[in-house]
Every structure is written in structure tokens, then in C-alpha cells.
Amino acid sequence: DYSCPYVVLETDAADANLQGHGITFTVGKGNEIVCHAIKVLSKMVVGQKLDVIFGNFGQFWRTLTSEDQMRWLGPEKGVMHLAVAAITNALWDLWAKMEGKPLWKLLVDMEPEKLVSTIDFRYMIDALTPEEAIEILKKAQAGKDKREKEMQ
After folding, report:
1. pTM confidence score
2. Residue 16: pLDDT band by 50, 70, 90 thresholds?
3. Which end of the chain has fewer surrounding CB within 10 Å, N or C?
4. What is the CA radius of gyration of the chain?
5. Residue from 73, 86, 84 nearest 6 by CA
6. How many CB atoms lie within 10 A of CB 54?
7. Using CA atoms, how far apart are residues 9 and 20, in angstroms rounded to an integer?
8. More confident residue, 72 or 75
9. Cβ(1)–Cβ(84) below 8 Å
């Protein structure tokens, strides 16, 4: 597609049809550069154990954005950010499919601690700590069923 690089992650799991799909949008020009960045970063994903990635997804995202040899290209902006977005979108999709749920349901069903572990807090820790986020989510458990029914 001229406006969105597309990533497909495949696993070597018994279910060979299990794939994660991710995209990132551009305005068309430069897609080949984003695609090359995806290819470079894919070496950090291929061969990894999914339980390790999903065990601390926020840390894995930080690993992608902080790769020593690539971070000078602007890991949290521009081409590298778009490449990381495509990969992480595919990982989120794969995770939801592994659980047999739409992504929103995967997130809703996570315990607060697990959900918070998917976030890299390095740029917001002065405003919100992981512990505070967990507390907010725990308090929001009351009424969760009602909100979930509205989604269905």
C-alpha cells in the first residue's frame, strides 16, 4: 500500500495460521524507508519467546526504541517510531489472537498490574507512577462489568 507499511508476524507455534498484523500510516512517500527500518528492527523480534515479550511488554517496547545502534535516528519520532509502531501493533494483534479475544477484550481482562506492565513510564513517571496507575485501575474495577457490556 502506498500509505501504510504492513507487518505480518508469524509464529512457529503448532497453529501455523496464527499471525499478528500491524500497520503504521505515512503519507506515502518514504514508505520504503519505514519498511527498511521495520526490517532492521525485526531482528530484535524474530526468535524471541512470546511469553518473554508479553511478560513485560513495556520493557520490550523500550528495548525496540532504545536499540543502541539505531536510537540516533530518532527512536521515538519519525521513521523509527513508525517502524516500532508497526511491529508493536502486530504484536498486540498476535497476543489478542493467541488469547482468542478482540484486542479491547484482552485489555479489559488484564489484571491492573499486567496492564501497567505494558506501558513504558519513563516520560510520565513524574506525573503518574506505575503504582498510582495500578491503584487507579483497581479503583475502576467497580463498574467494569457495566462498561464492558456497553462495548459488546
Report:
1. 0.89
2. low
3. C
4. 17
5. 86
6. 18
7. 5
8. 72
9. no
